[in-house]
Amino acid sequence: MIGQLIDGKAIAAKLRGEVAEAAAALRKHPGIAPTLAVVLVGDDPASAVYVKSKTKAAREANVDVRDHKLPQSTTQDELMSLVRALNDDPIVDGILVQMPLPPQLDSDAVIRALDPAKDVDGLTATSLGNLAQGRPTFVSCTPKGCMRLLKEVNAHVEGARAVVLGRSLLVGKPIAMLLQNANATVTACHSRTRDLADEVRRADIVVAAIGKPELVKGDWIKDGAIVLDVGINRTAEGKLVGDVQFTAAAQRARAITPVPGGVGPMTIAMLLANTLRASARTSG
Ligand code: NAP
After folding, report:
1. Is 121 one of the catalytic residues?
2. For the chain, what are the domain ranges?
């Protein structure tokens, strides 16, 4: 390992501490308690684990959690009624609907129904549109976490050549917009990109968010580049790996995130930061 290891776990812990302090200060005002509603539909074990860790982290950061667990058989009408009730509930500052939803449910319709003022996951068209216009309100948590990691390693984003691998609404597109808003020159790559290696070789900043184990080879990384690996993939042996060949890439990178312990922990920390922001906005 030659490059700096970006310790997302430690940075996220620091951020969660900052949120806890700010939330405690808000709670000193009568009637104000930052509150996150968490909606989990069905019995997907991975979603249950994510919700459990988000709930625990929120409570540790002085953020109240309203848990809503709905059965696998939930209908669209039932879920939409719950979302509307949470939109109207003045106690609730932020709403998180854990994805993916069971197959009978239309997640786009659920996202459309969310009040943008409570969209702490940054998924609504309003949140994404505000980001595209350079006036972000709620930014999706993983991309927001990536930008914070770049700040922590003093990355020179302005004027840098940034290559983003992946163009999902949750990760790739918002990170590309954030980097562009920060004056990087951004190339957005996807499954039809003709020569991925060639694009990555030119990058000062690489953000890999494709979900393919170690697809990005170490020798694609330019000397001195910063590498953020968003990918979470489980190998046949049950090991977690990212989208980047970590050991080889670390020989060339100036700084790189490990998987696990890099970008992942930042996602929950940013969810709490967004909830705090929602609470501060609604309470003036
Ligand atoms: P997604 O919706 O499946 O999107 C994957 C993107 O990668 C798509 O844009 C796809 O291109 C592109 N892609 C797929 N194969 C490719 C290839 N061979 N070459 C170039 N591009 C390729 O996934 P996602 O939700 O963005 O998540 C991406 C990864 O990040 C997953 O491993 C996920 O588990 C992880 N993740 C981690 C966190 C965290 O907290 N660390 C949070 C969210 C997601 P097309 O658009 O052309 O199909």
Report:
1. yes
2. 31-116, 141-264
Q: Is 204 a catalytic residue?
A: no
| Residue 281: predicted pLDDT | 84
Whether the CB of 257 sits within 6 Å of ligand 1:
no
Measured in degrees and rounded to the nearest 5, phi and psi for residue 68 equal: -130, 105
Q: Give domain 31-116's CATH number out of 3.40.50.10860, 3.30.1700.10, 1.10.10.10, 3.40.980.10.
A: 3.40.50.10860
CATH numeric code, 141-264? 3.40.50.720
The CA-atom distances, in angstroms, between 28 and each of 21, 31, 62 are 11, 9, 12
Mutate which of 44, 147, 169, 191 for ligand 1? The one with the most ligand atoms within 8 Å of its CB, which is: 191
What pLDDT was estimated at residue 246? 98
Do domains 31-116 and 141-264 share one topology? The answer is yes
- Beta bridge pairs of residue 162: 186, 205
Q: For residues 134 and 100, is the Cβ–Cβ distance under 8 A? A: no
Nearest 5 degrees, angle CA 159-CA 214-CA 53? 85
Low-confidence residues of the chain: pLDDT under 70: 1
The confidence score (pLDDT) of residue 88 equals: 98
pLDDT of residue 2: 77
The predicted pLDDT at position 1 comes to: 64
